[in-house]
Amino acid sequence: MAAKTSEWRPGPTVCRCCLSEGCYKDISTEYFWMGKREVYSEMLSDTFDLSISYSKSGGPNSASRLICEPCIGRLRDAAEFKRQVQECEKTFVQCLDPVTALADMQVTLELEKEVKVEMVKEEKMRLSDDDDYGAHDYGDDDDDYDDLDDQPLTKLASKIPKKEDVDVLDLLDNAKVTEKRKSSTKVKGQPSKKSKCKQTAGSSKQQKPEPKKKKATEPVSSIQKAKRNAELVLQYSTAYPFRIRGKDMLCVYCHEEITDPNEYRTHVDDYHKAFTVSTAFAHCASGKEFLKVDITDLKCRVCSTPCDTLEDMAAHIRDMHGVLQIDMESDIRMHPYRLFSDKWLCALCDKKYASLIQLCRHTSSHYHKYNCDVCGRMYLTNEALKYHVRCSHSGGHTCRKCWTDFPTLEMKREHLKASKACWPFCCILCGERFVSGERRQTHLTEVHGQERRVYDCPDCELVFKSRRPFYNHYTLVHSDNSYKCPYCHLKFSTKKQMEEHTFSHTGKKPFTCNVCSKTFSRRKNLQQHSWIHSENKRFVCEICDKQFAQKVSLNGHMKSYHPEIASNDTF
């Protein structure tokens, strides 16, 4: 990693292992990855005898102990390699002298049983206060809280992670069975020792047979099968995994940002010929994300056979190369893309989109399985569906950041104006929050010196300063994703706009004011009308301080009562 310059300063999202920006996982928090528990501070201590300390300066970032996804992948590999060496050493020693090794295991078992009882008692005494503190802080409805990704994980981290109870007898029984399989072909020249080892192993099985039965009946979830399929397909094929950041493709191995898909594929081929599969899936550890892969040049790494789809590749490596761990009845936890330099086409339905972000949103819609019973919208995960229901169908006016309920929409808007922590857009360089993406872009340009982003249409020479006009232009002019009115064939960029337009042909007015029962054909007209009933008026006459709910009313007032000013100014 390149050395940081003297201008670098520790920020709120800096990795403590490589000083990279943008990480969000806390070192002392308990996570679960592929069904296994992980506490990165414990893994650092056990593997390298290292500890990440808190700063004694007391500054704003002194309590930051975060770690990035690439460092987590390297740490997993190191911990796995250490475990592998220890198991191989144990197996090797047992093959040389199985009687002595088994006696040592039994002595260790007795000691660990005694130590385990004392540590469990001590752990319960030590964590009782922390558990009460956690309950008071976060309440009892943590299972219903769906917005954890928007909160800094340092707030949720516990200084003393919870310990998992491990059955030592169960681990030893499994180790004996594994070692017996490995050493069965190596001990043929020592029949006497082999028979003794069999008898001892048999006695230990009679002492504790239940854990083996429990392990054998444990089901493997469909998500775990789909993850395993994805890992094997990535290992045996030339699929190019990537993430997106803005308009760029982000390398899952080194986090380099590349705009052109051809350059990205060249970058992966040149710099990541040897890769770690777990590193590519590190950002999918929560189980909420699918791995995005470019399958433009999908081939088998073993025999270079080309395949059109991920399913074809999975069937090929299973049938032709004997990778029997692949479950063809389960999904593959990947989203396929075919990326070109001059166009963004869906690999599943050939629809055309203006940007990579729009293409990613559309591609994920092919895998939506969770349906909202109220409005019919579909979502990729159950967590996303629950979040949608809580935000859109709870019946109140709720802030999506702090989950505070407000009796009126005006009070919620006033809260959003005053509460900066609830603003939705955040600067990734300094952490400052903004009400809109346009203000964040202005901040990046003026404060951090970034070039002002513009949107070039890839199919014509038009250039747009903001995103929404560019997307509307591309949808209406250069794609087949627009919606046509069945009466006048006018095109609209969204289905909602088209449906509201059709009310002008049918005469329907489905939007009703809750105060005066007046009806409107468009939701926007109802929203403008609702300001009439509000105590707060948005438009104020600067001369007589009279307030108006709509700008057109202010303009009429100026022409009637202040014509000398209205003739000089345009309202």
Structure explained in plain terms:
The protein is α+β, with helices and mostly antiparallel strands and 571 residues long. Among the domains are: 162 residues, no CATH class; 121 residues, no CATH class; 35 residues. Helix content is 43%, strand content 11%. The strands form ten sheets. Strands 7-6-5-8-9-10-11 form a seven-stranded mixed beta sheet. Strands 1-4 form a two-stranded antiparallel sheet. A hairpin with a 6-residue loop joins β10 and β11. α1 packs across α2, α2 packs antiparallel against α3 and α7 crosses α10. The chain is globular and about 105 Å long. The N terminus is likely disordered. One of its GO terms (molecular function) is zinc ion binding. This is GDNF-inducible zinc finger protein 1 isoform X17. Keywords: Metal-binding, Repeat, Zinc, Zinc-finger. InterPro entries: Znf_AD, Znf_C2H2_sf, Znf_C2H2_type.
Tell me how many strands there are: 25
Instruction: State the separation between the terminal residues, measured CA to CA.
Output: 57 Å
Please identify the structural class as seen in this structure.
alpha+beta
Number of helices: 19
β-strand amount: 5-15%
Low-confidence stretches: 1-6, 111-172, 174-209, 211-217
Described by strand count, sense and barrel closure, the largest sheet is: 7 strands, mixed
In terms of quaternary structure, the protein is single chain
Percent of residues in helical segments?
A: 40-55%
